[in-house]
Every structure is written in C-alpha cells, then in structure tokens.
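Progress report, Aim 2. The chain analyzed during this reporting quarter is listed below.
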Amino acid sequence: MTVIVRDLRPEVRADVEGFARVRHRALPFMLFTADSIAYDLAHSHPDAHSRLLVAEEDGEIIGTAQVGFAYDSPQPGQGYVNVYTDPVARRRGAGALLTAVAEEHLAANGARKLFAWVLDEPDNRAFAERRGYLASRSAHFLRLDLAHGTLPPREPLPPDVELRTGADFADDPRPLFELDAGTMSDEPSDIAHEFTDYGAWLAETWRHPLLSHELTSVAVVDGRPAAFSAARTDGGARYGTVMTGTARAFRGRGLAKLAKNDSLHRARAAGCTEAFTGNDAGNGPMLAINKWFGYEICATEVRYARELG
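Predicted structure tokens for the chain:
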C-alpha cells in the first residue's frame, strides 16, 4: 500500500467529503462540512497562497493539511501548516509526507517562520519536535451539552442595551466588521494581525456557509454595536462560537456574557444539542465565562513554531 500526497480537488465531491471526514475524526470538536471546506479554498486571499493537501492510500483519503500564509500580518513570511491524520490510519507515513510537501510550498513562497497546531498528545508532540518545531502557547477546545445542560437564565438588560442578531445587520455589516477587527487585535496569538480588509472579511467571515446570522448575537449600546458572539452551525445539531468579544470602550459591563447567553439560548431553541468553542489557555477571563456557562475542556492543542534559515 502506497501513500501519495496531492492537492485537494474542490470540484470532486469525494475529495471534499474525504477531507471533511478526516478532519471530523481528528477534530470532532470543530465544525467542518464538505461545502465549507470547498468554500474556504475558493475564497482564500491570493496573498495567503493557500493549499489544501490530502494524503491518499489506495484511493482513500487518510490525511489532510491546511497550508498558507497569515497574509494580514505586518510581519511577512508567517506561514502555517496544520496536519491531521485519520486516527485509524496513523503510522503509515501520511503525516510526514504532508508536512514535507507543505513546508516545501511555504519555503518556495518566502516563508520565514512556520506555525502548526498540534494536539496535546505525546506522539503528536514528538512528531513536531523531531522536525525542529518548538512548543509555545496552548489552546483548549471546550464542549457544552445543550440538550441536557442548564443554561444561565437570561438577565434583564441595562436600559441603554439591546440585543440584536447578525441578521439585523444584513444590509450593512460594516459595524460588525469594525467590532470584530477591534476585538481580534486583542486576541492572544503568536502572529500579529492587521485586520483591515473589509472585502476579505465579507468573503471569509460574513458570507461563510457555516456562519449563522440568526444565532449570532450583538449587544448594542445607544445604537452602537459594543459586544458580540459569532455563531456557526453545521446544518445539523452542532453549534460553535468562533468569536466572542467586546469593544474596548465597553468592557467591564458583562456585555459579552449577555450576547453569548442570548446566542446559546436561541441555539438550543433552534434544536442545537452540542456547543463548542475554543480559548487560548492564557485567556483567563474568557475561560471563566465559559466555565460559568457550563463548558468543559475536551481537548488541548499546542502551537509549535519553526524558524526557517
């Protein structure tokens, strides 16, 4: 049995379904669909030099790699390579081949430093370290049982606050872009970002097929979006919070908690039974909020980095 590595063919349904299947088995706490994977590739920024690679054995996809550049970073040459193998197909060489092809692509396009998320398991960490990657920060995946858990009750809103949905901004989402950009700049990260491209945000975030405008909640203060909780769904019973934040001028009022609670209540009413989110391990305030909601850590990833000569 021979393993080969090639580019994903987004127009081939078996390819995108195979990519989604491997990612779901390796990362069951993240939301993917075949359509969202094809969309991500089709709408990636040209400067990202994005590639989706698959490792194939006897016609079956057993491994995947997401490869590209942080095009919105003020530091040039910041590349990423995230490799995941089907848990039942490990130790067949797929991960090593995917990593080699990904690194070659990034180096050829001017990468100076490579970043990779690695599940916090001994074999995975050893795999990265053998290839010269050094561990840095970590992040947690969290899960909440919406079907059987008890959400905090809705609290009365302050007189100057109202809760809206993302759908209320369908005609002009720019205020949400500005709120997202402001909160993103404060997110803990190894890579600095300058989130200024409204067109890219519309394509990559606002029009993404998994984003639910109806379940995204926005806390508005005196007519100005002040905090939000952006929600994704996979079209079934799984719901994920991809970003929750508050504009700097409005922090300390509990607005993010109000927005997220509103989104969770509406997600449960819409039939969602599982909620997922992720937090940097050093983001104590957001981890405390999620613990208050009842989320529990279900897995951890470690960020690894490697300097290129």
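Helices lie at 13-26, 34-42, 94-108, 122-130, 174-184, 198-206, 255-269, 284-293. The mean pLDDT is 94. These observations will guide the mutagenesis work planned for the next reporting period.
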